[in-house]
Amino acid sequence: MANTYRKMYLHVIFAVKNRQALLHKSWRADLFKYIAGIINKRGHYSLAVNGTNDHVHLFFDYKGHELVEDLVREIKKASNDYIKDKKLSPSKFSWQSGYGVFSHGYREKSRVMNYVMNQEEHHRKKSFREEYLAFLNSYQVEFNEGYVFEFFD
Q1: Mind listing the pLDDT tens digit for each residue in 63-99?
Q2: Which among 2, 21, 28, 130 counts the fewest CB atoms within 10 Å?
């Protein structure tokens, strides 16, 4: 549409469902590249995809042409199929239902990219549970503790 301009950066976080089916370090980087490709093929622009053994962070330039919930659902579905097809997980793999999505401004872009790409180091000091609840609280998201991810710590 003419005269329509936007710049939206989204930070999406979602988690692995089963403790036995964790994201193993030996194949995690390939999965993250695959997820970045999904984001790009859907017309958005991946800026950083990373995580640890039990969760994933996606940071991307969101173009606004599809609903966020549709995009996340398709990323989860395709990445789940990728893990299954490549037989990467010794156990049945799936993502937990739900996700967190947080918006960021242009001036925060470098900081968020750095945060996402340094997940291993970050989680030496803070658990995923602490991290996720801090996001919800800092963005003043109202939530029911009973519906937040099942954390492994």
Answers
A1: 999 999 999 999 999 999 999 999 999 999 999 999 9
A2: 2
User: Which residue, 109, 149, 153, is CA-closest to 14?
Assistant: 149
Compute the average pLDDT of residues 52-66. 96
Percent of the chain, pLDDT > 90? 74
Burial of 59 (0-12, 13-18, 19+ CB in 10 A): buried
* Domain map (residue ranges) of the chain: 8-147
Residue 11: enclosing H or E segment and its boundaries?
Answer: strand 8-15
3-state SS assignment for residue 111: helix
Exposure string over 135-146, b if 16+ CB within 10 A, otherwise e: eeeeeeeeeeee
The architecture that CATH gives domain 8-147 is 2-Layer Sandwich (3.30)
